[in-house]
Amino acid sequence: MDDRSFTRIYKIVVVGSGAVGKTSLILRFTTGAFRETYIQTLGAGFAFKNLDVDNRLVKLQIWDLAGQPQMKKVRSNFYTGSSGVIFIYDVTRRETFDEMLGWKKEADTHAQRSISLLVANKTDMVQDRAVTEAEGRELAGEFGWKYVETSVKLNENVVDVFKIVTREIIRLTD
Q: Whole-structure pTM over 0.85, yes or no?
């Protein structure tokens, strides 16, 4: 058990289309659990997690925003005060990748001055992959974002997602 106290609290929002793995990413990161079945997020959910980044203990307040188009008006208020935005798409569903520009526009409207990271999820589904790593990296480059590929199911790069965002937030706010 780490008895140090955290130095800062950072709000991070996780956005993307429905069923891309936002809730699963947060659940895996905060509890270590993975849920096979899809349960739609209604509105928003949130979790807390302490994270040690470069010997600095911070508390992350992680918001899971519903991805369905009809929830757009509800989502707008949840961006307020965010330090980071994690954009996630499903590599097996090209439409979720193609919708990233819309997600970027929404976040740019409501979360100015936030660190952004593009996450390609479900990389374990190699045979069903519809978006290449090169395409993901290219889009991230166009937007000026960092890029990470994950398999939440296999717990690959899940912690890295949050460490990368937090490290950038720290770098820009210190």
A: yes
